[in-house]
Design a protein that fits this description.
heterodimer, A: mainly alpha, ABC transporter involved in vitamin B12 uptake, BtuC, 16 helices, 2 strands, B: mainly alpha, two-stranded antiparallel ribbon, 70% helix, globular, membrane (chain B), transmembrane helix (chain B), ABC_transp_permease (chain B), transmembrane transporter activity (chain B)
């Protein structure tokens, strides 16, 4: 070990990277399915008379070929990442939120309202706009938690229905002169949009690089992603969140206020989606006006980012980059004669390619485990081990003396999660780490 | 135009807007009673609308197109069933991905290809169609509308009176108990999804080859979600679900008709009304009319 130069931290890191049992199978299968997804996309292009290589080149040129292209991609990455991180939080808690598309709009609405109505000097206005979007969308999503708490309304259903309410609310706001519709300049007809938010409420590029623009929103999104990853992995609150998501009954027994915690998780996920809406409003990705279509499906896509990242905020960063790149590249596709809708097809296929392998392999693994006791090939004198005990060498008599192997032998064939005591609500020591792993194993 | 004519116009356009919803709602109702909160009904309808026009354009027959559309709906349902009730990927994930996939695919294909328009023939009952106000609504419609009149009682009988339906409801209420009594939970859920796909496909195909005669990008425009709202509004009862469809269809018809009649009404409110009503119905009737107890809960043997 020492010769390899791997110290304790390194080992921990390796263990963390190790995807667990069957991890390599999952990795290989994912490579294969991604290949199939890309192959199907290429086939679609070829069948409809386009050129797959030209399309790939256009995608690359629009998204990654130059600093300017990267700037465009990264403008999309920031809101996608924020939505995805929020989705990670709510999905971890089991309070599954699918209303991000509406929450993005509500965030933009609240931000636009503050940005256009408050006359605050300097960058303070930007801060207020961002805060308003966070609070507005957080409350909007929190309503779903309240409806669940007091009337038992299914959270998925209510967040989904409220998406359509949000769309019409924004549409109403920008169609109503006394709300947010643009003010009349001359005699032209009024469009359903608001005035642009003032200059001091816009997110600008950080630093001064030739051609490359690193928008402040991206920094904000990455900071939020890293911070929430740390909170979920390292704090008491994060542990409780996971517990609620994995087994609410156990969590309740351990003294966690399940409803309150889930409600907060839901509000956080809404707030981050709202912040993404504020980024769309204030960064150069839009015209800085509130418009009904300004969410650009970022809410739905961000949710998919979280799914591909398996609810891990850090993994969401590269996945969001992938989705942002596809988005930016899509606008270059049209020049090659291939409709930019291709990007949506590629995206959906990629999501399936990433999501399916671990689930399929997990299912095959379970099925193999379940089939094992059914095949009566082992010795019939071992009725005491019904759940696929590893070998017919039953550790009944001989192992009592073998002190060294006894703990290992007794630990292996006890998969029964029912018998483990509920983990204490206080994490942070080595004992709970073991329980945590047990809980993870149960879900996997 | 007299007031009676106006009402007749709104009613008859409301009926036309209701029909695709009602077809799909019959399917979504079955899927939800079996415990699948099926979001991909939007994908089923959209894919079916596209498939029906594509096949009608290729074969020259709108009726074959309608059948093909229904089969596209079944195909989407089959994929959904495999992914969420065999492989056990989260059903919302599957639904969202399928919606995105079908929307992208149909938008792509309609941009790169051209189809000729086709429409199924219209039933036009002489004499009866002249009944004031309700005549045009009931007796001048495309023939799949009358198919709906058979689908509704059939769906009711399947769910409420057949053994299959009983098992279906058991699966939606308490999958563990159903499993123990020998019902294959996930198979029943897949079957319910296929029925949903068939009817949602008919609804989507009716929209294309029945109502409009052509396909345009994102033709269903959220009608699938409207259908889900109708089932929720109907508190998981078929009759009330269909009432929901009628209310939503009429709201849509009024939104389209009122500006022409010189009445100004808040169109955003009319568009949002179905979702608002569904939400309110859930809030108000939360304690008396509840959802299937295992709605949206995946079933895996050996887990609670």
């Amino acid at each position: 070990m020492a010769t390899l130069g791997i110290d304790g931290t390194g080992q921990r890191l390796l263990r963390r990277l190790n995807p667990g049992p069957g991890g390599w199978q999952v990795g290989l299968a994912t490579v294969a399915t991604v290949g199939v997804a890309l192959g199907l996309s290429a086939l679609l292009i070829a069948v409809t008379g386009g050129s797959p290589t030209a399309s790939a080149k256009a995608l690359y040129q629009g998204s990654m070929a130059s600093p300017a292209a990267w700037s465009t991609s990264l403008l999309y990455v920031a809101p996608l990442l924020l939505v995805a991180v929020g989705a990670c939080v709510s999905a971890r808690s089991g309070f599954f939120n699918i209303g991000q598309e509406g929450q993005v709009l509500i965030g933009a609405l609240a931000g636009a309202w503050v940005g256009l109505r408050l006359a605050v000097p300097g960058p303070l206005l930007l801060v207020l706009v961002l805060l308003a979007s966070v609070v507005g969308a957080g409350i909007w999503a929190g309503l779903s938690a309240l409806m669940y708490r007091f009337r038992g309304v299914n959270i998925v259903v209510s967040t989904m229905l409220m998406t359509f309410l949000a769309q019409q609310l924004v549409s109403f706001a920008v169609n109503t002169p006394w709300l947010l519709q643009e003010s009349r300049l001359g005699r032209g007809t009024l469009s359903p949009q608001s005035n642009p938010v003032p200059e001091n409420a816009r997110l600008t590029s950080l630093g001064d690089y030739p051609n490359l623009q690193l928008n402040g929103g991206l920094v904000l999104a990455v900071v939020v992603a890293v911070a929430l990853a740390l909170v979920m992995a390292r704090t008491r609150w994060g542990f409780r969140l996971k517990m609620v998501g994995l087994n609410p009954a156990t969590a309740r027994h351990a003294g966690v206020r399940v409803g309150a915690l889930g409600g907060i998780a839901l509000a956080i996920s809404g707030a981050l989606a709202g912040l993404a809406g504020a980024l769309l409003l204030t960064s150069p990705v839009s015209t800085n006006r509130l418009q009904p279509g300004m969410s650009l499906n970022i809410g739905w896509d961000g949710l998919l980012v979280a799914l591909v990242a398996r609810n891990n905020p850090l993994l969401a960063i590269p996945v969001a980059v992938l989705f942002g790149v596809l988005r930016a590249g899509g606008s270059f596709l049209a020049a090659t004669g291939v409709p930019s809708f291709l990007v949506d097809v590629v995206k959906a296929l990629l999501v399936l390619a990433f999501v399916a392998p671990p689930v399929v392999i997990g299912m095959l693994r379970r099925r193999r485990l379940a089939d094992e006791p059914a095949t009566p090939t082992s010795t019939p004198t071992a009725p005491a081990a019904p759940m696929g005990a590893p070998a017919p060498t039953a550790p009944t008599a001989g192992s009592a003396e073998a002190a060294g192997s006894a703990p290992a032998g007794s630990a292996a064939p006890v998969p029964g999660p029912r018998t483990t005591a509920p983990p204490p609500a206080d994490p942070g020591d080595a004992g709970t780490a073991g329980n945590k792993d047990a809980m993870e194993g149960r879900l996997a | 135009m007299s007031a009676a004519d106006n009402i007749a116009t709104i009613l008859s356009s409301g009926a036309r807007l209701t029909v695709p919803l009602a077809f799909a709602a019959c399917g979504e109702y079955v899927a939800q009673r079996a415990g699948t909160l099926n979001i991909s009904v939007e994908a089923m309808m959209l894919g079916a609308a596209f498939g029906s026009i594509a096949v009608a354009s290729a074969t020259g027959s709108a009726t074959i197109g309608l059948v093909a559309g229904a089969l596209v709906g079944v195909a989407v349902a089959f994929v959904h069933g495999i992914l969420s009730h065999r492989v056990q990927i989260n059903t919302f994930v599957v639904g969202l991905v399928l919606n995105a996939l079908v929307l992208g695919l149909t938008s792509y294909l309609i941009t790169v290809s051209t189809f000729t328009g086709h429409q199924v023939w219209q039933v036009n009952v002489p004499g009866l169609r002249d009944i004031p106000i309700i005549g045009p609504m009931l007796f001048v419609q495309r023939w799949p509308v009358y198919l709906l009149l058979a689908v509704i009682p059939l769906t009711w009988w399947l769910v409420e009176r057949s053994r299959w339906g009983l098992e279906l409801r058991a699966v939606g209420e308490n999958p563990q108990a159903a499993d123990v009594s020998g019902i294959e939970v996930n198979r029943r859920r897949r079957q319910a999804l296929l029925w949903c796909g068939l009817l949602a496909g008919l609804g989507g195909a009716y929209l294309a080859v029945g109502e409009v005669g052509s396909f345009n990008q994102n033709m269903t425009a959220g009608r699938g979600y409207l259908v889900i709202a109708a089932v929720i509004f109907g508190a998981w009862r078929l009759g009330r679900t269909l009432i929901g469809c009628v209310v939503f269809g009429l709201a849509d018809a009024m939104r389209l008709a009122l500006p022409a009649l010189g009445v100004t009404m808040n169109s955003q409110l009319l568009i949002a009304a179905p979702y608002l009503l569904a939400l309110l119905a859930m809030l108000v009737f939360a304690t008396t009319h509840r959802e299937p107890r295992a709605l949206a809960q995946p079933f895996q043997r050996g887990t609670t």
